[in-house]
Amino acid sequence: MFDFWSIVRRFLYMLFVLWIVATIIFFMFRLMPGSPLTAFIGTTFTDEQHDLLVKRFGLDKSLFEQYTLFIVNTLKGDFGLSFTYNKPVINMIIEALPNSIILTLFSLVIAYIFGVIAGAYLAWKRDTLVEGISIPFVLTTRSAPEFWLGMIALAFFSFQLDIFPSGGTSAAGVIYETTLSKLTSLHFYYHLILPSLVLALYLQGLPLLLMRSNMLEVMQEDFVTMSKMKGLSSWRIVIYHAARNALLPVATAFTLGVGFAFGGNVVIETVFSWPGLGRLLVFAVSSSDYPLAQGAFIFLTAILILMNFLADLMYLFLDPRVSYKTKN
Amino acid sequence: MIAEIYKIFKENNYATIGVCIYLFFILVAIFADLIATNDPLRINFSSSGLARNLPPSWEYFLGTTSNGRDIFSQLIYGSRNALAVGLSAALAVAILGTIVGLISGFYGGWIDNLIMRLADIALGLPFLPFVIVLAAFLGPSSWNVVIAIGLLLWPNAGRIIRSQVLTLRERGYIESAKVSGCSNFRIIFFHIAPNILPLSFLYGSIAIGWAILTEASVSFLGFGPSDVISWGYMLQDAYSSQALSLGAYIWFIPPGICIVLMVVAGFFISRGYEEILFPKIKK
Predict the structure, then answer these.
(1) How does pLDDT run across A53-84, given as a tens digit for each residue?
(2) By the 8 A CB rule, do A209 and A119 touch?
(3) Is the Cβ pair B259, A301 closer than 8 Å?
(4) Domain spanning B2-29+85-281: which CATH class is it, in words?
(5) pLDDT of the residue at B194
(6) Chain A residues in contact with B221 (beta carbon < 8 A)
(7) Where are the domains of chain B?
């Protein structure tokens, strides 16, 4: 069915892409106008801290030595110290990561459950008034900027009706002691509702349109005609025969969606002051905290590339007709 | 030719609506100076001091911002930025994708291999974070979005065009062009390119919407230029000036609607165009 070595080869190729991307990031940040430290020297940093930073990043060494150091440190998970917080970047990322993961997965699951059902329904209702109204509506939700939807939701549900909190993961003054206590707190999920619904509204368009077009395609295949001839009810054909086959590409899109949503979350997290990876990146870039920006960016990239790889694998397992040998 | 185009639009409602929306915004952008009632960046004063957070009136159709700027005029001038960014991004994607697809598909071998590996790398970079970092690198400007879209979105168009070129180059007329001594350059750009231009146009029209959305997001996050009025800038201004808690819907709803209209028009056009390109879907 599939070749073990082709998967290994694919995995190694993924690592190669990751390495190239890391290299691009390294040079992008090194070549930024001005020394990465200029903004800070003489303002908030003591000479001691300055020397420590210079040493830590090896800024006194040659570019090539800096590069090898960067690669070695990245492999060890050491992204250096944040300029603004003076904390290890990796700790800050690990703190922000669960928030991003939960927001992304929660929204994606809502979006995909809704999208798949609605997509199948709309395919079934082909050439009716329902379809005529729904499709432009779906296209419109896909065209609306996520942060704008978030702003409307905030103004209406948080400020005007006052039924949802206006941002963050906890009420003012409440601090979760551990990640676990946060994830088990109802309060956290109460804060999660508004951002994840807004994100889901934006994300549902893709699975919906994908499911619909797959369904339309599958409905024309021989086995569906066969089921019709057997006299099965149209509802049964849609659910048991067509939908199962139309789901394959949607499953792949979901995996790819995790990677893309992570990158796109940058705006949603900012609007809702959600302390995730995307907001960390925005903060880091706007305050020229370049070790933090570099670390956050590498993490976002790694997630995207890993998800692309998993989507490829998933396709292989779910649809045996696709063989790696023919694809490459 | 014109009759043919007219026929396409007559039969295709989506595309017609899309084109009408674009024409509307193009007219607004061209005649912005005549339509706008105020200088969009001027701080206005009324008899009782700074004209801040005023409700809609004959003087300020959509009211004023918390800094006393005219919202309606900002909205009108915002169309210029959106069109400029959208159309130049479309051009960048179409040109890059076409050239890359043509070369990759026609020559094959190591050139093809190299280009496809570059495509994998471009697709491995998270889009919006990349634009943000690029903006920090190049300084705030609307062109960052165009550059980033050009750098990261060419693979989508390039891959499709490449596969199209792969089938085209096996055709008889290419063979005869080769035999009659045509240079590769001539074959690529005079014999193959005209056949894949519809695809370039399709991917270009998709890029318009992406560019406008991305520009808005980048401005909203505060990495856009501060002296250029764009819809994203307006939304950022509203967000950071507490327009949400003030319930100033009239401030932040209109720019969003303009963005939606513009992006949806792009979707409609590419959708209508797709039906023309691939009539099988229509059945």
Answers:
(1) 666 666 677 778 888 888 888 888 888 778 77
(2) yes
(3) no
(4) mainly alpha
(5) 86
(6) 266-267, 270, 282, 286
(7) 2-29+85-281
